[in-house]
Amino acid sequence: MPRAAQCAKLRVSISPTNLSKLGIIAVQMTAFEIFLHRQDASAWEQALTELRNEIHEVDRNATEIWLRFYPLSLHELLATAEDAEALARKLLLEGDYRLANQINTSHRFLYAHRFWAQAKRAVQTHAESATPEPHETLAASIRKINASVADDAKQDQSITLGITFVAVMTLRQTGLAVFAAAPEELALERAELKRTPDQILRERARDNGQGLFGFLKTENKTWTVTFDESSSDARFKVIHSEEIASGAARDTRDWSKVDARRTEGPIPVQCRAAACGTCWVGVLGGHEKLSPVSRLEGTKIKEFGYINTDEERPLIRLTCMAQATGAVSVVIPPWNGFFGKIPGQWSEAQEAERQASAGQEVEGFKG
Questions:
Q1: Helix (H, G, I), strand (E, B) or coil at 345
Q2: pLDDT in tens, 263-286
Q3: For the chain, which residues make up each domain, given as ranges?
Q4: Alpha helix (H) ranges present in 212-351?
Q5: Three-state SS for 134?
Q6: Side-chain half-sphere CA neighbours of 207 within 13 A
Q7: This prediction's pTM
Q8: Residues 6+ away with beta carbon under 8 Å from 53
Q9: In 3-state terms, what secondary structure has residue 274?
Q10: Contact 168, 69 (CB under 8 A)
Q11: Helix (H), strand (E) at residue 51
């Protein structure tokens, strides 16, 4: 059924003012879109917690990292702001922090990125035609969609569950019209397509050989930091117990052509004292080989809004603080900022208004 006909099936009484605050362009949403807009950030966290052990190990950490890279709280802050650009400046946002600009690329570091076309089609079809059951949970909806994705991709459901989660959240933040309009073409190298999940997991677990008498080395040991698993050139060395950002700074290739924030090696860095948040990364593999979070780093990653946890070795780290004692695989987010304290101040008033707006009376179905 054409998109226009699907939209006509459901009309939602939401004022233009509230639509503008929600960042929604159209005046009509499908039943599934309404369902997604009723799920706050904590509901998405709960859904991922429920689904996490069902996601294949190769994408388990990656899916959580992706959710930290594209938090719903930041999206809603910007979507409901009277002046989004002014707010972005206030939050010191740098780089590309809008998911709508990266619909086909934000998940590049997931193994199941290769099944994005299948995930995108399934989510779009579900959004255009499905009506969630009463009391259906977000996790249940994602499982339902994932069954179609796995069948289309001819994969076990554990392999595609992470990318399905990503696709549903992408729909939530971009809206169906923008989501559907994004082209599906993906450029993947043949060698990358041949790699299996087990191969990737083995590579993440492997440490560097240190030579014949490597077991005797202490300070002279060196470890490889991989920052893009799809590229053999995306690596640099760190000395044993050295901060990752310091090792990255010795990579003199011009990474500013890739990202203007990368002025000293492949990892963006400014202050080297946990004060700016520029050097944050997600740890795909080897998080246990990084030094425990110091009190300063633990406090700052919460203030930046990157992750709220008291784990000793979380999946989000500041590379100016994290010291490597083995080979690690990280992924560099396309933006940085300072928004951790804002959502708490914002949520009480604006979250109530968002919930009221998204829950307006449905006039009925046609067709």
A1: helix
A2: 999 999 999 999 999 999 999 999
A3: 3-70+106-193, 197-336
A4: 244-249, 295-304, 342-346
A5: coil
A6: 17
A7: 0.86
A8: 60
A9: coil
A10: no
A11: helix 41-51
